[in-house]
Give the backbone structure.
Amino acid sequence: MTASGLNLALVTTAVVVLVAACFLGTTPMGAPRVLAAFLGQSPVGDSLVVWQIRLPRALAAFVVGVALGASGAAMQGLLRNPLAEPGVLGVSASASLGATFVLYYGFADAWGYTVPVAAISGASAASALIALVAVHTSSVVTLILVGVGLSSFAGAAMSLLMNLAPNPFSLADMVNWMLGSVANRSVDDLVLAAPFMAIGLAILFATRRGLSALTLGEEAAVGVGLNLRRQRLAVVLGTGLATGAAVAIAGAIGFVGIIAPHIVRPRVGHDPARSLLPSALLAGVVLVLADIAVRLSPTSSELKLGVVAAFIGAPVFIWITLQRRAIRD
Amino acid sequence: MTELCTKNVTVKVGRAILVEAASFTLRSGELVAMLGPNGAGKTTLLRAALGLGRLSAGSATLDGAATARLSSMERARRVGYLPQVRPLAWPNTVRDVVALGRFAYGAALGRLRARDAEAVDRAVAACDLANLAHRRTDTLSGGELARVHCARAFAAEAPLLIADEPTAALDLRHQFQVMGLLRRFVDVGGGVLVVLHDVGLAVRFADRLIWMKGGTILADGSPEETLTADRIRTVYGMHARVERQGAEWSVQIEGVA
């Protein structure tokens, strides 16, 4: 299958799962009623449920997946390592730390953009630190360990904030950020994060040729004409914006950024540039499906999307690690 | 005619002087071998010449313009650079890796323009890689991989090429193959500066030898002018016997001086 064929198939799948997700919900609605609502031929109540509640939730899962998939693929290209991902390297955790911080201090009510901006600042700071470490070490192991350390640090800071939480409601709020969920997301939540995400994704897609060149290693990539400094800056900024915006919508959701590129890569000739778009689409589809699974699961309190993603993703992460040939480290 | 020229280049990092007052020129139509022990400053000097490292003093110019002022793509279209080989990050196909040599022309893998595709085809053919074009690079031997790197450098079709130890870790046959490819590139009008660790290989293929030690260029000239047993002792600290019969040189390394 060619790269464009793959993209077409993934776009079609995305539309199908997004529509399918709208058939699920707490209000009992038969398939004909949902279809009628989609076609705009139903009572106000039905179309409100579909267009204002169900579709935004499904879309939230999708765009969060897209942002994380693209960020993962781009970081893997920049760092030349299939284990790089916003979740593993502590970028997502730093973003949720930023968001939790402003929530804790009540800044969030002051200005609508506070949460996304705080999440994006956290994410950008973390990805900048990772890129900085990458300049000074060629060891993949060191890099991953720094990411793990960063992740633990952000986790510790989150625990501190939870420890100091003024009341059970803020505590519940924070826990939601840590677990990651797209339940009850509205159109407003999406609109708020959309510009940041769009700019971040645009930056990542603009750098994709450079990601291909980095296959050769940094020095040789410079040799074929890559401006390495600009490339690093763009990927850091792009992942910061995209991941930060994703966290602002859904909290921290790990591992999708590893799984999607890993599945896509062999199908696009292992080219980081050509894996960017399909990784983003596939990660979006995966999260929508995971969210459908969350809603179908018969647990008394609803499972969080981030928890489900981690249950699938963590074993895959370990599997990829074991597959890697020791020679590259 | 393209000319890469350094004049009195000095590179310092902190208090350490890595390269001191080094001047050399590389022109189209010549194959120059740079020789010297590890830590002599060869790579540092080459990077400085390409405008990739900071100069503490001196100048590095390409046809009169400072190389550090050129954009990365502009520079890459005029001087190819093959650094010491590092493992490839992903198992791409051979043809895709060669196509990365067209980066400086805006080429994107998977949708090459006709001009880029033709340059890639020529480079693949020149390096005898047609049979391997669709193989994954992680299935190649070291010698095959070395040819792939030569091909991606040739695909750029830059008039000059700087290659840093392209024969490292290759067996004898593959060393000769790689040097043969570089020689052919020069014979059709290119200019090559190649770092080597084998004096015998250098003298067989190169028109000119640049000898470096301790950050300075000790000698720069044809084998007739610069290759002596004394030189090898000064540069490498090794006893050697150097003999010449017509165009044939024989360099025998005898032991540590």
Remarks:
- The first helix of chain A runs from residue 3 to 21.
